[in-house]
């Protein structure tokens, strides 16, 4: 997994951009209206729902929001795992832990897609390669997640983590033009390895392997020890027909992470195809797998 975006060094000339660094509530929620309701119910008494047109910031004892936002937030609070079915795809809308037998087995960041394996009360057993239980309030359906991320970006156009999350969900839904737009914006805001990798993955899905290789290479310039990036660039090299470079990247990835399952799978598949004399190409029945 690539590092979370830092908040320093962002350009200050973007129109309507906040000068403050992106922040999240103590509840880890993207929706300040939601957090204010929870805070009010828990400790601060009634929450005002009268909108204040002159400010977008909250002051002590004051929680301006629209009636629609208040109702939506209350609905979010009462949503339980019963809204989901086994086999559904959900999206993490905040950072959360995956827990199994009382132990944290993994963590997820906003925008990560998860498959529902089981349902128990207000918890979901989900997997993204590692299975664990997560609070149902930490996830949403893909379309609803995009709406939440979009609302958060409207409030803070410099929120790099949320733009990244939305871009990943848009890519997964096949909305590639919108995803490219998000990652282009992200490269301007926070030109880090994760931004280039995210955009490279969209180019890969579009079959534009030249652009994908360029972006994966730029990501590697910033994170040269990351096996995932070598794996992703290898996949693009392979589908371009450059199997020597594809194998070289996989070998490099294994130097940094000898037990990386996905890299080993892609390397073994490439080796087997070579031995059988098969020519791997973009029409291959099994394309190389990428990783977030």
Describe what this molecule looks like in 3D.
By secondary structure, the protein is an alpha+beta fold. It has 10 helices and 7 strands. The strands form 2 sheets. A 5-stranded antiparallel β-sheet has the order 6-5-4-1-7. Strands 2-3 form a two-stranded antiparallel ribbon. Strand 5 and strand 6 form a beta hairpin. The N and C termini lie close together (7 Å). Mean pLDDT is 77; it is low at 3-65, 74-79 and 281-285.
Short structural summary:
By secondary structure, the protein is α+β, with helices and mostly antiparallel strands.
List the helices and strands and how they pair.
Elements: H1 32-44, H2 67-78, E1 89-92, E2 96-100, E3 103-108, E4 113-120, E5 123-127, E6 131-135, E7 139-140, H3 142-155, H4 160-172, H5 176-189, H6 193-205, H7 209-222, H8 227-240, H9 243-256, H10 261-276
Antiparallel strand pairs: 1-4, 1-7, 2-3, 4-5, 5-6
């Amino acid at each position: 997994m690539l590092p979370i975006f830092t908040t320093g060094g962002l350009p200050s000339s973007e129109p309507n951009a906040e000068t403050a660094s992106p922040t999240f509530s103590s509840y880890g929620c993207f929706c300040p209206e939601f957090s204010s309701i929870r805070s009010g119910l828990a400790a601060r008494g009634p929450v005002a729902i009268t909108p204040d047109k002159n400010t977008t910031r909250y002051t002590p004892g004051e929680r301006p929001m629209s009636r629609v936002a208040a109702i939506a937030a209350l609905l979010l609070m009462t949503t339980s795992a019963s809204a989901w079915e086994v086999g559904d795809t959900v999206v993490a809308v905040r950072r959360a832990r995956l827990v199994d037998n009382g132990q944290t087995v993994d963590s997820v960041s906003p925008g990560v897609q998860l498959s529902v394996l089981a349902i128990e009360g207000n918890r979901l057993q989900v997997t993204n390669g590692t299975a664990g239980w997560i609070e149902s309030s930490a996830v949403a359906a893909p379309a609803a997640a995009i709406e939440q991320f979009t609302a958060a970006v409207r409030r803070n156009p410099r929120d790099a983590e949320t733009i990244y999350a939305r871009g990943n969900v848009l890519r997964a839904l096949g909305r590639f033009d919108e995803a490219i737009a998000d990652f282009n914006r992200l490269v301007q805001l926070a030109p880090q390895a994760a931004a280039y990798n995210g955009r490279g993955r969209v180019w890969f899905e579009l079959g534009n392997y030249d652009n994908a290789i360029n972006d994966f290479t730029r990501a590697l310039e910033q994170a040269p020890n990351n096996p995932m990036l070598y794996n992703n660039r290898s996949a693009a090299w392979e589908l371009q027909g450059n199997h020597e470079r594809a194998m070289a990247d996989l070998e490099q990835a294994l130097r940094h992470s000898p037990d990386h399952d996905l890299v080993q799978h892609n390397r073994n598949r490439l080796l087997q195809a070579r031995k059988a004399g098969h020519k791997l190409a973009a029409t291959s029945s099994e394309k190389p797998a990428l990783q977030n």
